[in-house]
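At this stage, I needed to go through a protein sequence along with its fold in token form, as given directly below:
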Amino acid sequence: MANKEQISALVDGEIQDKVLLEQLENDRELADAFGRYHLYGDALRSELPRHIRLDMSDSIAAALADEPAMIAAPAATKPKAEGAKVVRPLFGRISPMLRHLGQFAVAASVSAAVIVGVQQYSQGDLQSPVLNTVPLSGSAAPVSLNYQIAPRERSQEQAVLEQQRRIHELLMDHELQQRLRQN
């Protein structure tokens, strides 16, 4: 029987053996090896065709034939005796409780990880751009009801607020009219 070195030499054109060629015709395994060696050589020389047809149907069919058969049949049930008590396993009663405890544990773990991560992040650079609350232009204005605005700024700000209030009222009235038309 031919070995792989002889097949490789035949593919490379190093030997010309008529007996080996006859063995390739009769033995499927040797013919497959011969084809694979040609494919390897083409790949090494970068001469692969655009589309390679790999026939794996035989190997898949053989693998499926070796698989054990799975029969999906309902489990046999024993007939209950008159007045028999059904006993449920302990795990069946504890299962929902364990599931809820598991969900609580996961939520607590995620919360703890977020808290620790935020604490570690905030201990680093206090002027990091993510946590920087000072505006990029101008200065920060305090937000408070007790904050006093200069009289000139107050009149401008009141005018803007009054204009925004009127626009808001118009939009609310428009929305109300739309609702009434739909009904």
Summary: The helical segments are 4-12, 18-26, 28-44, 57-66, 90-123, 151-182. Residues 70 and 76 are 16 Å apart (CA to CA). Residues 155-183 form one domain.
